[in-house]
Amino acid sequence: MVVIPLFVIHADMSHSKIYTEKNTEIQALRGAAIIFVICHHIGFYHPFIPVTLQWAYTGVDLFFVISGFVVSQAFERDILRSHSVFRRAIPTFYVKRFYRIIPLTVLVTLTWLIGLAFFNESNAFGYVDLKQALYQAFTILTFTQNYLVLQPDYGLCFLSIMWSLCIEEHFYLVYPWIRKLFNNYYIRVTFILVAALTVAFIIRPMAPDQGLNIRFWTHTHCDGIFAGILIAELTKAQWLKSLSDDIKNKWIYRRLTQPLVIFLLYELALLPMSGFSDLPGYHMFTIATALSSILIALASLDNGIFCSGLGFIDKTIHWIGDRSFVIYLFHLPTEALLLELELGKKYRLDEWIKSENGQLVRVLIYTILLIVVSEFIHILVERPFQKLARSNVQLIQEDF
User: pLDDT category, 301, cuts 50, 70, 90?
Assistant: First the structure.
């Protein structure tokens, strides 16, 4: 066994491809993760969706590792562009996160409130009264839903998917300061590794509530984000970069990568239904994080073969990946709208939908509706705010 001491690792940030270009493999995994999540949330309404995907809520764990990896690299780019001046890099990071998250979060919250108030004969948008709805909207907009609402009223909570965004937002708030505090590369890598292991093997198993709360709380489910950061940090190591360059050019690697990725994604989706489901919940989340980390480590090589040769499937997954945040936020409101059309007294399409052909058509209607909604919001909301973020970042760089 070859042991490589930590002190011989050389971190090379300035010339790495991953700091200058979008990683298309990560976009593909984003697409896979959002497909998992959508199938889990709406699969019970669509019998055509495979049972395996109906329980694939582990897509969120894949999202967490992706977030840690991508956001860590994004902040490193901010540091490089700011010439290692943290008083430029930190405001830049926060401005970009603000325009990325807040506008769409406000929009989806308002959308759900409007649906709840004016388009809810079937209760598809929720069962809560106005006071409860406003309180839940407050917890969503302040990113406290995962602590204040979800238990014991999970079934009554509209936009319950926002718990994962709460965890990510808590991470975004503290990560720049962790990065500044542990500016030494070796100390930082050690801290991140210890933090991930502590959450997975100490904090989560010792949590007083082993129900759904360990899935929703930030302090019991942030190990995936730390794992993503760790992978991003290790990609800076020169010896690892040289090793990865050698490996990804090997014939056997290029032959085995796609089957391995498909196998790992299948195991990740199947995990809640496998024998591991009999274990305590904290073990399953740890295994999901491990599988997701392997996928992100492979994707970090960015060799363009995850979906190569798959044509339309390749383009579709990347399209989904580019719009994954919009799709994640609006896939449930879109489903609620369709349910209201089916079950509301004015429409009553449920009898037709129950027919065999109706079920298939329902899948197609939902897919088309979600594509239209996602593209509409991506073009009219997400892109303009991204442009505004770039303008504000430029002002920050000039002011400092």
Answer: confident
Provide the 8-state DSSP code for 11: B
The Cα 333–Cα 331 span in angstroms is 6
Given the structure tokens 């709406």, which residue do they identify? 42
| Residue 218 DSSP SS3 | coil
- C-alpha–C-alpha distance, residues 189 and 75, integer Å: 15
Q: How far apart are CA 382 and CA 96, in angstroms?
A: 12
- Taking the CA atoms of the chain, what radius of gyration do you get in angstroms? 22
152: pLDDT strictly greater than 80: no
What does the pLDDT look like over 307-331, one tens digit per residue? 666 667 777 887 888 899 999 999 9
Q: What residue has token string 């270009």? A: 21
Range(s) of the domain holding residue 150: 22-399
Note whether residue 4 is domain-resident.
no
d(CA 112, CA 328): 14
- Residues linked to residue 11 through DSSP beta bridges, in sequence order: 237
Cα 20 versus chain centre, distance: 22
3-class SS at 237?
strand
What is the sign, positive or negative, of the torsion defined by CA atoms of 137, 142, 143, 146? negative
Number of domains in the chain: 1
pLDDT tens-place string over residues 362-379: 788 888 999 999 999 999
Establish if 13 belongs to a structural domain: no
Quick check: is 384 in a domain?
yes
Predicted TM-score (pTM) above 0.85:
yes
